[in-house]
Specification:
318 residues; alpha+beta; 3-stranded antiparallel sheet; 10 strands; elongated
Amino acid sequence: MHKVFEVELASENGCTQLTLPAAPYAMLDALEKLRLEDGEAPRWEILRINTANGITPYLDHESGSLFELNALCQQLALLDEGQLAIVEGLAAMGCEKVLQPIPMPQLIDMAYSTDCCHLVEEATNDYTLGRFCAENGFVPEADDLSDEAFEQLDFAKIGREFRQNEGGVLTSGGYVQKHDELRQVCDTLNLVPQKPDYAILVATASGCEVKLPVPLGEPLGDEPVLCVDCAAPALTGLSGAMATLDMLAHRLTYLTVDGEMPKYKALLEATGCDDIRWALALADGLNQYSFSPNLLEPEDAAMDQERTQDQQTGMELM
């Protein structure tokens, strides 16, 4: 699944960046970093557009939620260029004559409704649309013309009239004509992020996904796999042997139960861990490190160190 947007998230208490669509643990981790107040919704801003550029002008930044945006990106990431052009066309039809935001639920329905439209990829303006129509039997008057007479046709006028009569639109990816109603999908989706029933989700070379850990005693080989979602999101994207990742998944399960996961995630970030075996060693040696979650900035650490030194000095004087 390719990436659609890079976004910056902000709250009253923090900010972070996230790639969309986000896997479940990546989304939960981002929300944790924001330290949202009760009832507060994360604010989002697009920093980079990786795909679906033609749809971006229609995004509702005011009332569209992060969870809706992620659901939209999850579907956009599955579409090819032609299908993305159709979503752009549907959005343009929804805005009539002026570019304006479209409610996010409606955009989600559009992203799931690419089969309700025809797409003529070679028609990117009225002239090419008119020529396509004339060459493919949509203009009966042009059927019996000689080649010379055919070339004298006003293709731009033909295309413009055809587009206006059919209610279609021209997009960066071709001409889009709607022939059926949108599918009503958004209301059936569960947009609120849920904690997954795995510690690590891996993908095999054949594209199969496997949830880890597996029950103890179940045999696992050394097949190389890719981590696609993880309770410690810093490890997402790393590769390793299936058995090694399963061992790590068992460790992460224990760390979650013991409340040590925040400490482990902070350690991964501090060390820049980029190897699964290293990550397993850090999990096994976690008790060798101290963790002060209230020290968020270097200045906080310096002040804490100064207070510790003052306390030690005071004890020595006593």
